[in-house]
């Protein structure tokens, strides 16, 4: 349920509506970023209890009470019908411009990251990606450079001027990683790590939340809700392919998820064609499909020498292929009334 206060509602009226929400055992939530005075009512609200809607409608300063029937409340499109965007330094994700985050799967060393950062910046990327804490299927695979990798990422940001996105795997590392990163990535394997979601919800860093390979779109939205219910409204969702019976590719890109998410939530939605396909040969085609299907951004793995990459080399684009893709994407973006 959301309570829309009239534009001339006084702070006292707002406060007493909040008190009333608490009195009936629910939790008032005001989004400070929103100009309209909208109070979300959180908790197990029985939407059929018409008397509660009636009751709130009669309080002083209340213009209207709307029932949000979705299980995800703060993430629901009915909460912000116009859509929301996330601002990271001077990059806006969820606006007319489609945002491309690119970089290696893992940060390997300074020379590698600087070379890739310069190449993706030159090609038009507006965010630099790179993992320092890597969730690997095998414990014997490269696990990332840890904090050393974060320091390299921060230096790359200073050098090329792109904000950085990097993964956080453990609740204990959230504050430390938030000191370096502009965007915290919660990876597919951790999409339902509720302690991690809550911890990220208590930071002031935007969160890029990736869909689990076996998670429904609904589950992804409930995970976003966990972050938002803690106070952090800056959540970006990311489709990265799901597990199906098809094994021609690493995962199957759920392109349907893009329009479904755009309808169900106001949050910006990105697509990761690299993990979705697992093969650099399909990354360009799936990126074009993603832009055509309404993605607000793409997350693409790029490596100057994929053959020796410490992780995900087979799905990484070389800089020249990435630059050519950026040119093509510009044309697809125009076809859907956007730019890149
Ligand atoms: C990554 O972005 O490198 C990554 C590990 O992604 P995912 O969590 O989608 O597998
Ligand atoms: Mn990867």
Multimer state: single chain
Fraction in helix: 25-40%
In what order do the strands lie side by side in the largest sheet? Answer: 7-8-9-10-11-12-13-14
Q: What distance lies between the first and last C-alpha atoms, to the nearest angstrom?
A: 36 Å
Shape: elongated
Number of H- or I-type helical stretches? 11
Stretches where pLDDT falls below 50 for ≥5 residues?
A: none
Average pLDDT metric: 96
Overall SS class = alpha/beta
**Ligands, ions, cofactors:** phosphoenolpyruvate, manganese (II) ion
Describe the structure.
The chain has helices at 11-23, 50-57, 110-123, 147-160, 174-180, 194-201, 217-229, 257-264, 273-277, 280-292, 319-335, and strands spanning 2-5, 27-30, 38-42, 62-66, 86-88, 91-93, 99-103, 127-129, 164-167, 183-186, 207-210, 235-239, 269-271, 297-301. It has eleven helices and 14 strands. Helix content is 35%, strand content 17%. The protein has 340 residues and is α/β, with parallel strands linked by helices. The model has no long low-confidence stretch (mean pLDDT 96). Helix 6 packs across helix 7. Bound molecules: phosphoenolpyruvate (PEP) and manganese (II) ion. The site of phosphoenolpyruvate (PEP) has 10 residues, from loops.
Give a quick precis of the structure:
The chain is of the alpha/beta class.
Features:
about 350 residues, alpha/beta, 8-stranded parallel β-barrel, 4-stranded antiparallel beta sheet, 11 helices, binds phosphoenolpyruvate, binds manganese (II) ion
Q: Would you spell out the secondary-structure blueprint of this structure?
A:
Layout: E1 2-5, H1 11-23, E2 27-30, E3 38-42, H2 50-57, E4 62-66, E5 86-88, E6 91-93, E7 99-103, H3 110-123, E8 127-129, H4 147-160, E9 164-167, H5 174-180, E10 183-186, H6 194-201, E11 207-210, H7 217-229, E12 235-239, H8 257-264, E13 269-271, H9 273-277, H10 280-292, E14 297-301, H11 319-335
Parallel strand pairs: 7-8, 7-14, 8-9, 9-10, 10-11, 11-12, 12-13, 13-14
Antiparallel strand pairs: 1-3, 1-4, 2-3, 5-6
The structure holds phosphoenolpyruvate and manganese (II) ion (MN).
Phosphoenolpyruvate is lined by residues 105, 131, 135, 187-189, 210, 240, 272, 275.
